[in-house]
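Dear colleague,

Following up on Tuesday's group meeting, I ran the structure prediction for the two-component complex that the binding team flagged. I've pasted the input sequences exactly as they went in, so you can double-check that nothing got truncated or mislabelled along the way. The structure tokens for the whole assembly follow below. Feel free to forward this to whoever is handling the docking comparison.

Inputs:
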Amino acid sequence: MNFKKFTSPTHLIENSPGIAKYFKKYGIFIALLFICIILTIATPNFLTLQNMVMVLRQTSINGILAIGVTFVIISGGIDLSLGSVVALTGVAAASFAHPGTHGLIVPLLVGILIGLGIGVINGLIITKGKVAAFIVTLGMMTIARGLALVVSDGRPVSNLSDSFNFIGGGAFLNIPIPILLFAAVIILSSIILNYTKTGRYIYAVGGNENAAKASGINVHSIKMFTYIMCSGLAGLAGIVLASRITTGQPNAGVAYELDAIAAVVIGGTSLSGGAGKIIGTVVGALIIGVINNGLDLLNITSYSQQIIKGLIIIGAVLLDRKN
Amino acid sequence: MKKIQLASLLIIFVAWALSGCNRNQKKEIVIGVSMLSLQSEFVVNVKDAMEARAKEKNIKLIITDAQLTAEKQVQQVETFISQKVDAIILNPCEVEASSPAVDKAKAAGIPIVNVNSETKSTPNAFVGSRDEEAGEIAMEQLAKLINYSGNVVIMDGNMGQAAQIKRSVGAMNVVAKYPNLKIIAEQTAQWDRAKAMTLMENWIQSYGSKINAVFAQNDEMGMGALQALEQVKLKSKVVLVSVDAIADALQAVKAGRLNATVYQDAKGQGAGAIDIALKLIKKELTDKKEVLIPFKLVTIENVNDFLKK
């Protein structure tokens, strides 16, 4: 079997002619650009270096989550437990981050390992237990939320060390740490998906699971990998969020999975699996981030914000698909 | 029907009184409690206060979490009725939708006490605070700190919730008194710290140093706004006042970072609800009692009194 066929969703594009090919490839970039141009005209406060950095930082948590779930969705799965995992890992990490108790490495490890562990559990039940991913991760969504409440006794975990708070609030060479982490995640994920065997297999499993199995791919371990990756990144996002707001909040991250999945879908990844790109997801997350930022800058009322946000999301995808 | 209930209640009382000498066989008082959401720190504090007072008084509590759903709350109260509890304490989810819970308890002859927020149906007693008062106290202090003149931004809670509406009403009553107070932006951050931080960053981007003061309708949002302001070193120029007096906010007031918060007395409400319920059970109290627990302004001068609580 020739996997080259699956290596990238752009194989479709390569066969389509001229201008259509151009739009197919860049439609979502154009949508982002379009929104940015409108906001630049609407308010002088949008297109400034300070605001651009801010939008990137505000997007980084959703961006990290969206990249994680991109792996899962390309492989044909779904993960609804992200928001709760963010809360659980944030609260757990924060519990080990009080000043003068542990080194910075302890809360970081706790957060990431809990994330990875949840990925292992999700993956095992989905592959070995043969339960639909939707159900497993829906169950995990309430379990992780419950655990977050148990761990924190229903209260925010505050009084965190400066070094822990640096992750969300600090900067290196004037670039906020969350943005650097987001960038690192983008690069690493792109490498895994585009240049490794595992990456190609993820597309193959999502494209046609039976064919992938027939050709000798260990479908279970590929799926396991995607769920572990996804929850592990949710653990990272949980740490960044807790650090950014300087508390572990058991009720943080509600519905974050929806924003993450929205970013993935806006970015051109098909919910039925087999196709998608990290860069698309990044642009999708940026569209959501820019909309949130822009609507606040324009001081649009809360009620209308929700309507406009929904319309822009659907519109952006329409613009992409039409082309 | 009423007579049977009265009679059965009497029998229970007699039995309880007779068995009073034998502790093991004593019929203990059971109160069913349905709380709005045990994911909210304030509600958890009210619950803890109830548990502490119940322990003092040897009362057994059955505590349930309605998870913000009025329908679930009504079911929980129905279960209490079939369990024949001695009284019910309701921390209502919604004004209208939680009302059937009150009606059903009253129809079953079980005394019901609303704590913290109201329902359309009148319970036997209400223990809580007037949220308008919180808005008034906070906005009054904010106005004073900027000499009754300047640009103010307001962070709302979840739009349409009773606390959001009433705190807004209270704040606006004060704003109406001072013509030089100008509300330049008002937006919801859904009671959430992370959302408030993002909103404040975006406002700073829009209005920059034009903002003289921020009123956040709860401390979580206040803390988020505080971090956004401190991040760009604007806090020294902006007055920030929020409501609830959660632990983080008290620490921030003590450190001089947050200008003021408003203390909503969770302990007073929780303990008060148990006391009133007990009085109703013992028939020491007639209907429609309203116990208002006042809000208190917390500033750097008096913050130590609240940190001890």
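The two ends of chain B are 46 Å apart (CA to CA).

Cheers,
M.
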